[in-house]
Amino acid sequence: MKTSSLQMVAELEKLQALIGDLPAAQRNLASGCQPGQIRETRDAVLDTLHEDHASTFRRLACFVRALPAKRAAKLATSCGPVVVARVLPFVDLLKVGKITRQLPVDFLTEVTLKADPRALRTLIRHIPTDQIAAVAAALIEQEHHITAGQLADALPSTAIRQVLTLVDDDVALLRTVFYMDEPEQLGDIIRLVDNERLNRIILAGLGNRDTWPILMWVIDQVGRDIQSRITNLIVERDPETLNELINVANSQALWGPILRSLDTIKERHQRSLVHLQALRDEQVLEGLMKAAYDEGLMANTIPLIEAMNADLQAFVAKVGLRQGADILEAFIRDAVRQNHAAVILTLLSRMTDEEVKELTTLGVFNDNFILQAIVSAGIGTGQIRPLIRFARRLPSKGQELLASLMAADHGALLERLLNRSELLGDSDWNELVSLISKVRIPDQAKEIADVIRYQSRQTSRALKARAENMGSDLFKTLLK
């Protein structure tokens, strides 16, 4: 799930808190909107609500301004929280601060519930910190998480620290921050939380399945340092909890935040994570692959694959082949762009011959850049045998293209490959001779001949013997 989708849920719930639950048809329609569009609708509703009788409340505000703070506070309690909430936007900020000092927390809490949150955000810094913190804590304790959340990012740091002291319910804190109007400020708020309390909040969130989507949302909102703290704390949980978390991520389309945070997970935790039983479920793995493709995060799956054992890599390769050309080609291109072409050969080495043959029909292997990256990665990492196996199962056009790449730049790739000839088995020599025989351009054949001519006697003999056994006329010519 994209961050915008999780944010859309928060915005939709804030709108419903204002106007009441929407019918199912309208909720489905709203779910296709962007968070900003829903927020604009909420703002329009608030504008309409507070424009009604605005002139009357302006006149009342003029009267309030003329009163001493104590008398204005007494008038406020007489008029009630609804009237006070409507008058607030028209009263001088400093005057509001003086009046609130005379009002009890429970009354201010009621006013907060009735007021336009946009107006409150501008007033907060003119109200004593103790009162602000007490009102925020009361809202959270009374489960008015949406109202509290809309004000959370406007609170001064001193008030936030007081709220953390006053509110012991860690799950309630998580529910509250989900409704922040400026979620990009969540990282600044979390930095005010000490490690012990943050750990407690995360563990409480993990202990309540309903808050798991909020945890995923939090991971997407914060900086890399906090993201690393949270993700590594999560993956330290017992396998049963992690398996369930993965299943929830799949069923609720929450893969996006997980994929985006994978590189913040310590290597030892990655190894335990990738071998969880949940990832051996084909449906779960397909969901992960599809999410990675939909969100342009194919490259983020590479650390997972590299941490897997051979059996699981083979399983991933099998499931991946069923996902279609678009997903496969996106993974291959992203792996090459991220300088991880070697992982392609690793997966190839786990495939059956039929699976390799199916994979090599992809159009992406007609791209010179892709082929060159794969050959270079194979030579550089010593995956020569998987490289040769891949090359021989390419369609004829792909083999000719690869042979041309071997000859390019004075045969540089071929020379590098032959320098690793100790890694070639008997059948690999035959495959290599057959591949080089695909060269059709005379100048390229000459480049290959020059490379072979300067190889060790052992390498030249090996090539010549295979060429003679295979009856390769072109290769015999090269070896003269």
What does this structure look like?
The chain is mostly helical and 480 residues long. 73% of the residues lie in helices and 0% in strands. The protein has 33 helices and no strands. It has helices spanning 3-19, 24-30, 35-51, 54-66, 69-79, 81-87, 93-100, 105-114, 117-123, 129-141, 145-152, 157-166, 170-177, 186-190, 195-206, 212-221, 224-235, 239-251, 255-260, 267-274, 282-294, 302-307, 310-321, 325-337, 342-349, 353-359, 368-381, 384-392, 396-418, 426-436, 442-453, 457-470, 473-478. The protein is elongated. The mean pLDDT is 89.
Number of helices: 33
Structural class by helix and strand composition: mainly alpha
Average predicted confidence as pLDDT: 89
What form results from the Cα inertia axes? elongated
Ends distance = 62 Å
User: Radius of gyration, Cα only, in angstroms?
Assistant: 32 Å
Oligomer: single chain
Q: Helical content, roughly? A: over 70%
Number of strands: 0
Low-confidence stretches: none
Measured by DSSP, the beta-strand proportion falls in under 5%
Q: What composes the largest sheet? A: none
